Amino acid sequence: MNSPDAARVRPDAPRWRDGLADEARDELPRSATHAIVAAAAAIAFLGTLAFVVVVRPFAHDAVPSAMLVIAITTLAIFAVDLGWQRVYLRPSTGLDFGYDDPSWRRTLTKYLGLLASVGLVGAAYALLPQYHDGSFADYFHALRLIAIPWAVVALPYFHFVDRHMRAPHDGYFQMGALVLLRFRAVDRRVIVQHLLGWAIKGFFMALMWIFLCDDLRWLFVFDFGAVGSFANAYDFLYRAIYLVDVGIGTLGYAMAFRITDTHIRSAEPTMLGWLVALACYPPFWSSITYRYLPYGTGYPWNAWLAYRPWLFAIWGSGILVLSAVYVWATVIFAARFSNLTNRGIITNGPYRFTKHPAYIAKNLTWWMISVPFLPRDNLWDTLPRCAMLLGVNLIYFLRAKTEEWHLASDPDYVRYAMWIERHGWLRIFRRAPIVGRLAFGFRAPSGEPDVRMSP
After folding, report:
1. Sign of CA dihedral 3, 87, 171, 167
2. SS3 135
3. pLDDT confidence of 414, banded at 50, 70, 90?
4. Is residue 250 a contact partner of residue 142, using CB atoms and an 8 Å limit?
5. Mean per-residue pLDDT for 138-154?
6. Of 42, 145, 263, 278, most Cβ neighbours within 10 A?
7. pTM for the predicted model, two decimal places
8. Which residues fall within 8 angstroms of residue 195, CB to CB, at 6 or more apart?
């Protein structure tokens, strides 16, 4: 799926009506990540995971084990993406290998911009007390292991990419120019987008990494002989599914490269978008769900159905199926997964059926796990708990809508969203008065979408 930059838009290109060209109204855009690439990611991840658990080349050390899993999975993804899909030739990369304009001055300016960007993230880690309690020790250990090799490899990579860029004054160049006090060369919009992108990396990569290491430690000591009942199998599969999710998520935040077309094209520009996204992650999530929206009854589904084995198995299987859909929605991104960014529009996998499969699946599992509709003391005590879980659902609804508003500047997303309007599985709910259109509809931007590439 290619997003043309402004320089490549033909003057005779079809005009847009309601955000969609007439001849493209019923065409699903090609996905940025091919399904085979996602399959390669899943196979490599699970295979390497099995290797580090069974062979244990690093014993119980989760950090190098996680690094090996991420490295092998990344190689599998990029081997298919570069070797078969040839993503480096996509216009959305901003690269033209028929064009060669080497400049060490530009390269060094960009390299300085890279170091300054990393330095700002490091300063945030040093200043914020959240990162000083030892919970991020695995992440900082990994950073110490890769810092020098990363700094060495980054310079020739920047030089190679820069010499083939038609518009080389990207975010790194702008950041370097700002550090050098070349204010006339600085584009404020580009700098803001660049800093937002690095803020996203800094926050989410640290979080995903410690989740991944914690899950690996759990897997190292797990007694597979105990998986003899559905209840034990459910406990194992539920956490294993989320292990895959955080593993692919970690990879996505780390592997943002222009040459692989996995770079950040744009970052969420609105405060509302950031607030509702960050609200769903630590340290904010616990405050919201335990202090302000405590929807749990203390009597979850497995206690409710403990003495009804058939219903227990059916209900638990439903939760696992929805969780599998959730992780499928992550894996299908492969190296392009990232919150709050556009790194290419995904139109296959579960996104072939609805725009927000992950959010729908996750919110349904919360209703099935916490069962807030079951009365404990009296019938009326279910109402506030259901209202609180609806409040959590509302947060995810706002996440979905702010993402749509952000991605609507990409013509590929407009084509995709309009296709879903016609063919998506949830299109029937749009007929519901007012709420249906608001929740399940998509309003394309007026005029022509903004097709400028983010640096």
Report:
1. negative
2. coil
3. very high
4. no
5. 97
6. 263
7. 0.90
8. 117, 120, 175
